[in-house]
Amino acid sequence: MESPVVLIPALRDNYIALLYATDGRSVVIVDPSEAEPAIRYIENRGLQPLAILNTHHHPDHVGGNRELQQTYDLPVYGSAEDRDRIPGLTHPMYDGDTVTPAGLNRRGLVWDIPGHTRSHVAFVFLDDELLFAGDTLFAAGCGRLFEGSAKQMHTSLSRLAELPESTRLFCGHEYTVKNLRFARVVEPENPDIEYKLARAEALREEGEPTLPSTMGEELRTNPFLRVGEPAVRETARAQGVNGDDMVAVFAAIRAWRDRF
Predict the structure, then answer these.
(1) Which residues does 184 contact at the CB level (< 8 Å), separation at least 6?
(2) Complete domains list, the chain, with CATH
């Protein structure tokens, strides 16, 4: 299936995602870190923007909201808990709410996935097998714990891991190569990591994004989704973890990644 999503590079390593409506002419803008790249893409192709979706409040995900709103008069969807932190929020959303901007003709769901921030959400389009995970789940990685706990993040990742393996993952940053190099240290005998790393390095050498990933690939290569695997637990024990508690294993691997 051809992807209805286009990724626009922004800032240093961010991506702004455009989700096309079924008419092929209208788009929803996901996590616009800045307005100019999105406006340039939209105007050059004669597209009609419909709405902004924000996964969380960090400036590199909402920095373009105001200018895009002023230019196109767009509604903004985001977590109700972020109503004072997301610029221009017009549609405060709660876990399980549906996201159906007029003209999109695609049905999304809001999932609360705290950990990176206390009020982070994902936009899940089950029928289209699309996941916009912001900075919670990266290809081969996960976000830092700025406002949430290891337990929250582990719970959030476990929820995302229940999506069908064919679900395509779009995240907020191009971190894949670095994440896979870390994953290889965590699981040096995992051939899926070696394969995905070689492919990611080749894509970056060509200036191409490494996204989307799929949930199936993540289940095979992402150490933060694999904390129940013996090899990951053994690595965590080398980092000082006693026992096999999965939250403790996750916390140890996440803390190691911060230092990596």
Answers:
(1) 190, 193, 194, 197
(2) 5-259 (3.60.15.10)
